[in-house]
Design a protein that fits this description.
351 residues, alpha/beta, Aspartate Aminotransferase, domain 1, 2 domains, 15 helices, globular, binds pyridoxal-5'-phosphate
Length: 351
């Protein structure tokens, strides 16, 4: 089995961030041409930034350390201190980025709350502040696609949101940490989604297997300004072509295979759904994530966790009783079957 060879001993369903670089990436790292990227001298970084921009239909790109850094730099670059931005209540920038947009960009979020975490054009229109001396200026809408709840926002909603934002002269940032998963799910090019945003951040280090990095794309003027901000927070790095080489392979090779992860997630969800004692909404499996709940009257949860441990299955603890499993390059159908077998072995026998 391929994964032992690379030291991946577990069946790791915690996230697609756990993916190790492929052998091809490791080879590319050793051969990468490099230079001092703060001088703009790293040919591999330059190639990655250009490739990403072209792929997403934008003028320029910027290699950054993470999705968190990409979101922060984008929002900071688009706004002024004290502005208000419209975003979703469960978006990563609100829940998982230590309020960096407040601490560093110094903007205030106005959050939209829908059960599916979507934002609709009416939400944008309703929440733009009037031109009143008491109120902040609304200057940006930040959307996420795919969402971290595993859902994908259809293109017509992306378009309608973008058009509404433009009607009021707002910028649009897209947190596309899993942009390519969204594109696979929608059956379109990533560019088709990116056209409805002024800036996009996407991650190389999730389902695409690169060990490091995200890329921001946008206009040349925007990227030049974001590059200055990156330097200010210590994100100017030197011979990172060794890492950008993996990013290039992520874009050239790994985006195409994401559909396999989606298929495995769908397979897992369907099989879980067939187990009496498991609650899973199969229709909500749109990318590589499956959410499920155990009926504790029917399944021995303690035994389930014990068996997972025994079989080296890693999962994050349940949130509000719900488990999330994520499929990726290092998870295959057999791994899904092992998890299913473990769950089935923990069914309580009814007398
Ligand atoms: C939707 C979304 N945005 C941003 C990020 C942040 O990415 P990173 O972990 O590279 O900072 C994540 C990470 O999981 C994410 O799921």
């Amino acid at each position: 089995m391929k994964k032992e060879k690379y030291g991946m001993k577990n069946i790791d369903f915690r996230s697609d961030t756990v993916t190790f670089p492929t052998q091809e990436m490791r080879n590319a790292m050793s051969k990468a041409l490099v230079g001092d990227d703060v001088y703009g001298d790293d040919p591999t970084v330059n190639e990655l930034e250009m490739t990403a921009a072209k792929l997403l239909g934008k003028e320029a790109g910027l290699f950054v350390s993470s999705g968190t850094m990409g979101n922060l730099l984008s929002i900071w670059t688009h706004t002024n201190r004290g502005d208000e931005i419209i975003t979703g209540w469960h978006n990563h920038i609100i829940v998982h980025e230590q309020a960096g947009i407040a601490q560093i960009a110094q903007v205030m979020p106005r959050v939209i709350c829908h059960d599916n975490d979507f934002i609709y054009p009416e939400d944008i229109e309703k929440n733009i502040r009037p031109n009143d001396i008491h109120e902040p200026h609304t200057t940006l809408v930040s959307v996420e696609n795919a969402l971290s709840n595993g859902l994908v926002i259809p293109l017509d909603i992306m378009k309608a949101n973008y058009e509404m934002a433009k009607k009021y002269n707002l910028k649009v940032h897209l947190d596309g940490a899993r942009l390519f998963n969204a594109a696979v799910s929608l059956g379109c090019d990533a560019k088709d989604i990116a056209q409805y945003a002024d800036s996009v951040t996407f991650c190389l280090s999730k389902g695409l297997c690169a060990p490091y990095g995200s890329v921001i794309v946008g206009s040349k003027e925007f990227i030049d300004k974001a590059r200055r901000h990156r330097k200010m927070i210590g994100g100017g790095t030197r011979q990172v072509g060794v890492l950008a080489a993996c990013g290039l392979l992520a874009l050239k090779k790994m985006t195409k295979r994401l559909k396999q992860d989606h298929q495995n997630a769908k397979y897992l969800a369907k099989e879980l759904n067939a187990i009496d004692g498991i609650e899973v909404d199969v229709d909500k499996v749109q990318i590589n994530m499956v959410f499920f709940k155990l009926d504790k009257k029917k399944i021995n949860e303690k035994e389930f966790l014990k068996q997972c441990d025994k079989k080296s299955i890693l999962m994050n603890p349940a949130t509000d009783g719900e488990y999330r499993v994520v499929t990726h390059y290092w998870i295959d159908k057999e791994d899904c079957d092992i998890l299913l077998k473990v769950i089935k072995s923990c069914l309580k026998t009814t007398k």
